[in-house]
Amino acid sequence: MQKKLTLTVDEEVYEGLRKTIGPRKISKFIEELVRPHVVRPDLESAYAEMAKDKKREKEAKDWAEVTFKDIGNEKA
């Protein structure tokens, strides 16, 4: 569900938004900028869900093991 929000900005900022983003795209632009700062993902649930994917977990483990072996063979 969407909610309407009224913002007050300086006229110069508003004109810059209209010229740069476009008059019908300002809301989406602002939402995309703000979202990561105010909507926190439930990382614990996301990681638990990813861990259920056995194929992905095996690929990640294989990649990590090869990477660690490569690092061990590097000269200082």
Describe what you observe in this structure.
The chain is mainly alpha-helical and 76 residues long. The chain folds into 2 domains: 1-40, no CATH class; 43-72. Helices cover 67% and strands 0% of the residues. The protein is built from 4 helices and no strands. The model has no long low-confidence stretch (mean pLDDT 89).
Please sum up the structure shown:
The chain is an all-alpha fold and 76 residues long. The chain has helices spanning 11-20, 26-38, 43-51, 54-72.
Q: H/E element string?
A: HHHH
| N-to-C CA distance | 56 Å
Which term fits the overall shape? elongated
What integer is the average pLDDT?
A: 89
> In angstroms, what is the radius of gyration?
22 Å
- As for the number of domains, it is 2
Low-pLDDT sequence parts:
none
